[in-house]
Amino acid sequence: MTYYLRKLGFYVVALWAALTLNFFLPRWMPGDPVDLMIAKLAAKGPVSPEIRHSLELLLGTDSSRPIFLQYVDYLNNVAHGDLGVSVTYFPQTVSTTLADTLPWTIALMGIATIISFAIGILLGQLAGWKRGSWLDNLIPVTTMFQAVPYFWLALVLLYLLSSVAQIFPTGGGYDVNTVVPGFNLPFLRSAVYYGTLPALTIVLSSIAGWMLGMRNMMVSTLSEDYIVTAEAKGLTRRRIMTTYAARNAVLPSLAGFAITLGFVVSGSIITEQVFSYPGIGMTLMSAVQNSDYALMQGVFLVITISVLGANLLVDLLYAVIDPRTRARA
Amino acid sequence: MAALTDPAVVVESAVREKRRRRLSPKLVVGLVICGGITLFGIVGPFFVGDPQKVDNIGLTPPGSGHLLGTTQTGQDVFAQLAYATRGSLLIGLTVGLAALALAAIFGVIGAYAGGWVDEAFSLFSNVMLVLPGLPLMIVISSYVQNKGVWLVAGVLALTSWAGCARVLRAVTLSVRNRDYVAAARVSGERTWRILCVEILPNLVPILVSLFVFSVIGAILGEAGLAFIGLGASNSWTWGTMLFWAGNGLALRLGALWWFVPPGVLITLFGAGLAMINFSIDEIVNPKLRDQTRRTRRGWKASKEQIAVAEEATK
Fold this sequence. Notes:
The complex is a heterodimer of chains A (329) and B (314). Chain A has 329 residues and is mainly α. Chain A contains 13 helices and no strands. Chain A is globular. Chain A starts with a helix and ends with a helix. In chain B, helix 4 packs antiparallel against helix 10. Chain B is globular, with a radius of gyration of 25 Å.
């Protein structure tokens, strides 16, 4: 029980740190984002005093109130889901914009990461089991893929597979001309078709890390005494590999999975930029290009909360899989 | 004495000596690649023309006069590449050192001090670890309009040290509980001396490996930031080159000589550093050392012996 409480406490602290960072960053930075935003908003429609106040709270130029009270107001607003109004998608609020784009990112990045993890762990297991085989010798080659800048690989693949070979579409989330978003078969098929190439690039660039980590753990595990015992008992090689060695070797990779989620989200920003994919990364980039600070903060907050939530989930799962973590706490 | 002059023993020890000194091929390849690129970054800019110089020969393929062709505005790609290599390596080096210093402060000192200092430091680095780095970088750098190289390097260092701190903390915890550290403490050595003289040398392999990692991370991170248009203004790095190539539709116009070289250099450099890291890992953890078929053949076991051995371990 202490383990769960400790973990929960940690994520509460992390969330608080993210919120505080979000509150203070625009206040530390030079320039006056509120006036910039109000000017842009005014060009699109009338700006009510409430919107102005909400923006001032978010970005901080309201000098009439002490900073501590501003901070309390800000936390209160965020708790009620009020993240301000977006300039880019005016008059939509930031919250609705985020609700529209988040599912795209989660679906694409989630599926791609799970595929990459599964294949990488399987190959790493085999490479560690058969030291010095062709698969094991392949590992230094796959790290090349990790050293390739992701966006460069994605652009080259995009060029080869959609401009030269024309197998995949050049960008977007679905065919906007022929299908209507919703739960219908043509839309889902179109979304899968458009998502395949981005997912492929993510898998290619991230698989090597999983493979290498799993391979190294597998090698370390294989020299444990219980493997010798299993061999002495005359168990089949397959059983030793899967239920004795791999099962224990996979634990650090699972723990690493949580940390990777942060990189996954970061990666999604660049993926979506390359493939013009309508997810949260695109939203962040258009917010940056339009100096839409409210939207930018909202996106950062949502990204942080999703990463924290996913981390918490993995931590809790990990405690179920590996009882030692609970005992140690 | 007699045993030492025995020719068989002399030969054997000489062979052993030779084998011990032989560097692993991975290390050699990695060092050659990284050394070559670093040399190019240091020396290259002295021998090439002005990378900014605009000419009316836009998008010339590689050939005489322009070794790697020209960009859309007729700038020499090779000259740009030389300056970009220097810029990227500088960023990588700065960020690597800064991140390592931060990681050492928060990881080593926290773990050595123990108690609430350790709790606070490790809480802080864990929080920094779970906050997603690139979005944070984007948010910070979008508030600043004119970004210098140092600002970009600072942002990269601030968002990348936490993982290293965690590794260092774990290693320090295991080192500090060893008997010789306790002995040093009992014999009255001062804390800084224990930290710097007793503990730090044991962390050197890990530090080198973490440094190599941070350099790769920084170069890739800078390239990513520059690619989405948030790199340092008025500077040459591999990332800004790719940004301009992307902006100039280099790929769609078929100008591969403009788009490919920076990417290839990043990849080569990253792969070289990764190979260096592999061999460091193998030094630190002997279990990971290669036992390829070639090494097994080096044991001079006959085919029958290998077959017997494999039969026995099946």
